[in-house]
Structure formats: C-alpha cells, structure tokens
C-alpha cells in the first residue's frame, strides 16, 4: 500500500509488481534421514510461488509490497510418497504512517499442515481448481494476508480477498485434506475464515481499521488522540468474546498485538491504563503476567 497517501488500494505504477514480499524458512531439523536437498527445493518453490504469483487485480509498486513471512517446521517426511507434515507460522506486517515503525497484523501458527512435494516439482496457481494441498494452503494464507492488510487501510477493504479465501476453502473441503473442515476445530483454516466473515465476529474487521488507521497512524501526529482511538476500539474484543469466546480471531489479535499494546500504554495516564487492563483481562484472563506490565509501566 502507498502509506503516504493512506489509501486502501495502491496507486498506479508504471512498473507493476506482485503484492507480496514473502520471506520463507523451512526447518527440517526433526527429520534425520534422507537427503536435505528436497527441503531446499521446497523453500525455493514456496518463495517463488508466493512472491511471483499475481494475487489481485490491484496495481502495486515495488515499494508497496506487503512484508510477510512463512516459517514451515516439518515434523515428518516420507521419502517414498513425498508426504510432509508439520506446522506453518504466518506473520505479516504493516507500516505505520509517517514513521519507520511496522506493526504486526498476523502472527499465527497453522498446525494442520500436510502435503506432498517431490524433487523438481513446480507449484502451479489456479483460482478455479485445487491443484494440491500445498498450493491451497499457500493460496489461503496469501489471501488472508492481503485481506487483513487492505482492511487496515480501508474499512472492509479486504472483502474481495476474503471471498477468494472462501473459494479456496470450498475447493479444499471436498478434498478430504485436514485443516479445512468446518467445525473440525476452532483454530483451523476454515475457522480462521469464519472469524473474519461471519456476523457474530464482524467487529474484528472494524478493529483492524480503527486500530491501525485511526489509532496507530494518528499517534504519529497526536499520541493521545491515536491512543484514545485504540482504547475505544478495544471494546470490540468484549463484544466478540460475549458471543464467540472461543473464536480464533481473539487469539490472533492477542498474539499479534498484546506486546504492542503494553508499549502503546506505557505513557498513558493511570485511568486509561486501568480501563485497558480491565478490557483485556476480561477476554484474556490467562495472560495476567503480561497484562500486569500495562499497569506497572511508568508514565513520563
């Protein structure tokens, strides 16, 4: 996104670029047998796929790409069938207006990751068909990364990309692969999509906009005004918790934002700190030790 203009959609550029600047890591330390060459090929294939696929119709300049990271940790590999199993940590960041600071949008671990990959395999993109489970997983997370990024610049700006993610889920659900089934568990990919598209958890998308555009972006200009906007939008957490206490979007928000919130409120007045503490404690009671840091930080 072009942060200087603070628009949801990138401005036109003569040199059209793809949307993602994705760093990829593949950790195969748990696998002790066989040649490691296949894992290097896997890393290169995923890197090329994420960074060279054109995911949207929007036009991005090279300096507008969304910075993200995929860290795949493999727990098993069958050399004969090419079946790999593990988990995938997804991270994405967004720049804050008129600053060098970047803020996390996603910091999530997908634990239902299994796919086949063979030496020399090329990853093929298709919107209309499910080529294989690996590309389906990558497609889903690419669209979620883009959708959440667009949401943070324009209210509900990510709609087209959640729709694309939904298409990926629909195609994958008929495959029988794990991680896609509705109600399989409350943290799989189907649950993540539902958290950002169903009415009862819709406030999370309002939060994405208010927290970033009205909060962090404004703090560079007026700290108190921006922080006040963040305080106000945190009330949405209680709304979500009331109707969907097990929603994965609450966990996703906590993992991406809790440490940042401690820093945001380090210079707030005591009344504001206590109000934020109570709001967060209501939703995340198991995080007492971390939340206590909000009240312990000293005002300047």
Characterization of this structure:
The protein has about 300 residues and is an alpha+beta fold. It is about 45% helix and about 15% strand. It contains 10 helices and 4 strands; from the N terminus they run βαβββααααααααα. It has helices at about 35-50, 135-155, 160-175, 190-195, 205-220, 225-235, 235-245, 250-265, 270-285, 290-295, and strands at about 20-25, 65-75, 85-95, 100-115. It has a 4-stranded mixed sheet. Strand 2 and strand 3 (about 85-95) form a beta hairpin. Helix 2 (about 135-155) crosses helix 5 and helix 5 (about 205-220) runs antiparallel to helix 7. The longest helix has 21 residues, at about 135-155. It is globular and about 60 Å long. The two termini are about 35 Å apart. Residues about 1-15 have low confidence and may be disordered.
